[in-house]
C-alpha cells in the first residue's frame, strides 16, 4: 500500500509536465508576433525535446520578435 501515494504523486507530476508542454505549443501556435518559420521551429523544438523546448519557449519566446527584427527577418512592428 505504500506504493499508491508514490504512484499518485508521479501521475500528478506527469499531468503537470504534459500540461506545461501543451500550453507552450498552444502559445507558440497562437503567437502572431513571430514569423511562420519561427513558429514552426519552436513547435519542432518542443516536440523533439518536450521539456527543454517548452522551458526554452517560456524563457526566450517573448524575445523572438525582437530577434527577428534585429536579423531583418521581419520589419518593425507597426501599431500604436
| Radius of gyration of CA atoms, rounded to a whole number | 17 Å
Shape: elongated
Q: List the domain count as a whole number.
A: 1
Q: Into which percent range does the helicity of residues fall?
A: over 70%
Distance between the termini: 61 Å
Largest sheet: none
Structural class: mainly alpha
SSE sequence, one letter per element = HHHH
Q: Which runs of at least 5 residues are low in confidence (pLDDT < 50)?
A: none
> Would you count the extended β strands for me?
0
Q: Assess the beta-strand content as a share of residues.
A: under 5%
Mean pLDDT: 86
Gist of the model:
It is found in: Cell membrane. Keywords: Cell membrane, Membrane, Transmembrane, Transmembrane helix. This protein is mainly α.
If you had to describe this structure to a student in words, what would you say it looks like?
The protein contains 4 helices and no strands. With 80 residues, the protein is mainly α. It has one domain. The radius of gyration is 17 Å and the shape is elongated. The protein starts with a helix and ends in a 9-residue tail after the last helix. Residues 20-61 form the Cardiolipin synthase N-terminal domain. InterPro entries: CLS_N (IPR027379). The chain crosses the membrane at residues 6-29, 41-60. It is found in: Cell membrane. This is PLDc N-terminal domain-containing protein.
